[in-house]
TrEMBL record:
This is Type II restriction enzyme NaeI domain-containing protein. It comes from the Bacteria. Keywords: Endonuclease, Hydrolase, Nuclease. Pfam families: NaeI (PF09126). One of its GO terms (biological process) is DNA restriction-modification system. The keyword Metal-binding does not apply. The keyword Nuclease applies. It comes from Eiseniibacteriota bacterium.
Amino acid sequence: MVDHPTHDDPALDSVVTWLRDATAPDPERLFGGAVRQSIDEVLDGPRTGRWGFEQLEKTEKTYVGTKIEIIVRSALELERGPVLDLAIKGVPVDLKWAMGSQWQIPIEALGEICLCIGGLKKMTQFQVGVVRCTEEHLNTGQNRDGKRTLSEAGRTAMLHLVDPSPLPPNFVAEMDPDLRAEIVDLPTMQARITALFQSLPYTAIPRNAVTTIARTTGDPMRRTRADSHAEDPLGDYAVLSAKYGNRLLEGLGRKPMEADHFMSVPKADIQALPASARGALPQAVRERFGLD
């Protein structure tokens, strides 16, 4: 792929310039996040307990492309085009997704601009580019639906927005396989949640991973807290949220978590905070963790 304007295709240049501006300063984050979110939503871990792309059915893998289109269009605040998927500055644009970056170009996109998002290396990487799908950019062969693939010339002509980059991982998929198997095989939601946080202290765990391990669409975080009817289920650990825990993590010399992440911390470490660090914490945080 190339990254410089074409000059002989003003509409293509306009679309590429708009996309680069709209996704700056981090197009990898926007597009990678869209792909990750799409896959995770189709996996539906809280209901199915699945975490890996390879666990999807064939029809579900196809639906990932539809999800990516919806999420990218929403993230870029674009309207759906009258014929193709998108309209960018009045220019019709089709959004194409392919697991192995072998994009299938439909008849209606012949001669049109395509925003191509593709997976690579068994879905561990992704790339994004824009190309006008003219005859010289397509192979002559076609499938039963009349779809054709990009030729070598088409791939060379593609203007890249994201070079091959790591796809944001699914937390559960990245867990040690033996530990994951041990946790997911536990018979109750409470046992799985407790084992997850006790086994991975000082590890930021996204909510989607917690609900996948718990196999619930409800609020599994209530199972990390003591109440009037039960003792603290995590024993010697406290679970911090990004909302209330990041200032505490700062006092412990740890990096803050992103929103919607959680982390287990030994209660002994919290209680060992020096008076100077405690005093720097907001009153609400001190009260929440018994540091007054």
